Amino acid sequence: MSDRVTISRDGPVATVTMNRPDKLNALDVTQIEAIVAAGASLATARDVRAVVLTGAGGSFCAGLDIAAMPVIAELARSTGFMTRSHGRSNLFQAAAMTWAELPQPVIAAVEGHAYGGGFQIMLGADIRVAAPSAKFAIMEAKWGLVPDMGGMVLARRLLRGDVLRRLTYTAEVFDAEGALDWGVVTELADDPLARAQALAAMIASRSPDAVRAAKRLISDTEVMGAGDVLLEESAAQEALVGQPNQLEAVMAGFEKREPKFTD
Question: Would you state the pLDDT for residue 224?
Fold first, then answer.
């Protein structure tokens, strides 16, 4: 783990902070690796009873750092998204799935942006507390991609199929009220970090054995066959990365113009 992600402790509550505020905590490979490492470091910490996940600098996570796309494309060519490097997930999926799979409950405190991969990392939390001004998007279609960081496992726990399709196909930005109505966030708070830490402290006061068992029971009965879904995600993404229309989506975004796709 690097200084890209920090962990602070208040008794049995750990607060994990994505720490790339100059880039709105956007995701390059180094950032993703640091997020995964943070989750791994907490998974065996018996004295941690609840986790708060947030972002530094007033933004949760603005999604993929497009400047990192060449490195990610090279990883896709050399290693392949189908490689299961972290249990049933690849590296990118592990950035979100690590929080869903952590034995302790995780509460996301969301301000600013939760876009693309940041949105999916947020969905890995058990509970999501958002500021009224927060903005959300399943952003991958803007870059010619599909949600591939566990989104097809995590989003289907929360969103109706038609809402998931709309938000995925359009990549539209939506506000916190919409997120609350659709079940993407649990509640709104003017100070989401303080509220998340208060909830974490309440959870940490309960029997850790019962809380861990409850999380495991809810998760196991909520989603079946998640490993197969993660493989399907990877296959879909691997077929898109580096192809002409996907590269055109990225270039059009860089050049602030309308993309010209081929059929």
Answer: 62
